[in-house]
Amino acid sequence: EQNSLLYLVRPQSDGICRIFADMFNIPMVRTQTHETSCLGAAVLTVVGTALYQDLAGAASAMIHETTVFEPDPGNVRLYRDLYRRVYQKMFRALDPLYSQIREITGYPEE
Predict the structure, then answer these.
(1) What is the pLDDT of residues 40-88, one digit of tens each?
(2) 96 Cβ neighbours under 8 A, 6+ residues apart
(3) Cα 30 from chain centroid?
């Protein structure tokens, strides 16, 4: 049973929300604000100052879901297959080229 939710910076695009839900195969939740970093800091602050006893209570009171995007099983299979059958092989095939890029540019540092 799924018991995890994905909270992201509030994307305006429903399509992006659906893609995230499908890629990670968990519900993607859009919240009331796009200022999720500030909201997270506020939740931690009210717990730290003992206005709420725990994170779950503070989050429940302060974070309001506006839309939940459920994963589409067909798209979940599609993304899983693309990752396993294509992207993992691409990364292995391109790895030597990444080393050459690092050697030429010095970035990223090892």
Answers:
(1) 899 999 999 999 999 999 988 998 888 899 999 999 999 999 999 999 9
(2) none
(3) 11
**3-state SS of the chain?**
CCCCCEECCCCCCHHHHHHHHHHHCCCEEEECCCCHHHHHHHHHHHHHCCCCCCHHHHHHHHCCEEEEECCCHHHHHHHHHHHHHHHHHHHHHHHHHHHHHHHHHCCCCC
Task: Of 7-16, 39-48, 88-97, give the lowest mean pLDDT range.
Answer: 7-16
Sign of the CA dihedral 71, 74, 79, 80? positive
Please identify which residue in the block is written with the tokens 């725990």.
Answer: 54
Give the tokens for residue 47.
Answer: 């717990």
Length of the chain: 110
Q: Six-digit token pair at 53?
A: 């006893």
Q: Are 69 and 14 in contact (CB under 8 A)?
A: yes
